[in-house]
Write a structure and sequence with these properties.
Layout: E1 17-21, E2 24-30, E3 37-42, E4 45-51, H1 61-72, E5 81-85, H2 91-99, E6 104-108, H3 112-121, E7 129-133, H4 137-141, E8 149-154, H5 169-178, E9 179-191, H6 196-206, E10 211-216, H7 218-221, E11 227-234, H8 240-249, E12 255-258, H9 259-266
Parallel strand pairs: 5-6, 5-8, 6-7, 8-9
Antiparallel strand pairs: 1-2, 2-3, 3-4, 9-11, 10-11, 10-12
Helix pairs in contact: 1-2, 1-8, 6-9
């Protein structure tokens, strides 16, 4: 094990840090290109990337796409109330704190051992208003007051799969309850051909939200490979033009689908309920090679 006993030594170290957590073997691997940046992996699957010197830097493509949503959720720099379901290394909570100072945030992460590891080795800014709750994502969401959140981000994976109880209309009822009427919900979804899970999640969101958009690599949308897609939903119109521009200019170009094209993409998929929900599909081993 490369574990450091000093709470702040790991940030300056060059050796990886490994520790057993509730969800498996966690590994914090140093980024060779950035002096105080780390990648969190669980059982070999990349979960988060954090740059302690520059929390506004987002390395993973799906996190950059979520970053675009965060940037457009309110006027630039305006503080928001944000809920993060799935903590990992708290990359996006750090991003909100850096780009929207004085924001108030709640992060819900079920793996208490992982929370302790990240807090010790990659400390959160003590001035950031981030409350971390060790709980199941849906249970933690249930403790958020009605109409509190400007933004709810769901990025929850257990063994590289999203748990079934976080994929249903009943779950989205809780999301709607906690969101302000003008709030935005964004979810990181992972799927591959034939994209049945992704289509079902779009249909589920359409049953609860008036406005939807999907941000994804065109190859994923064509069912050519397994990958991530960001589902964005709100009761009010979304900033589609700017979202499309940012997705197109990203280093990993993405497409934004909405309206009739997104409806057609679902192919008649039906909304998922608690009674019919299943975990998202497991990624093929080649994804993490």
């Amino acid at each position: 094990m490369g574990r450091s006993r000093n709470p702040r030594r790991a940030a300056a170290a060059t050796a990886a840090v490994e520790e057993a957590v509730d969800g498996g073997l966690a590994r914090l691997a140093p980024d060779p290109d950035r002096s105080r940046a780390w990648t969190l992996l669980i059982d070999g699957a990349p979960q988060s990337h954090v740059d302690l010197d520059d929390p506004g830097y987002l390395s993973f493509e799906y996190q950059r796409r979520l970053g675009h949503v965060i940037d457009l959720a309110a006027p630039p720099g305006k503080p928001v109330h944000a809920v993060h379901l799935g903590g990992g290394a708290f990359t996006l909570a750090r991003y909100v704190a850096a780009t929207r100072p004085r924001s108030t945030q709640q992060a819900v992460e079920r793996d208490a051992s992982l929370v302790q590891l990240v807090r010790r080795e990659l400390p959160l800014d003590p001035n950031a208003r981030i409350r971390v709750r060790s709980a199941d994502a849906r249970a933690g969401l249930g403790k958020v007051p009605d109409d509190w959140a400007d933004l709810i981000v769901a990025d929850v994976f257990s063994g590289a799969r999203t748990p079934a109880h976080l994929t249903s209309t009943e779950f989205l009822d809780e999301v709607r309850r906690a969101l302000k009427p003008s709030g935005i919900y964004a979810a990181n979804l992972a799927d591959g051909p034939p994209l049945a899970h992704l289509r079902g999640q779009i249909a589920t969101a359409a049953a609860r939200f008036a406005e939807l958009a999907l941000i994804a690599d065109p190859a994923v949308l064509r069912g050519k490979r397994f990958g991530n897609a960001i589902l964005v939903a709100s009761g009010l119109p979304l900033p589609l033009s700017e979202l499309t521009r940012r997705a197109a200019s990203d280093p990993h170009t993405a497409r934004v689908e909405h309206g009739r094209r997104l409806t057609d993409f679902t192919g008649g998929a039906q909304p998922v309920t608690d009674a019919s929900a299943v975990d998202s599909p497991a990624p093929p081993p080649s994804v993490f090679r």
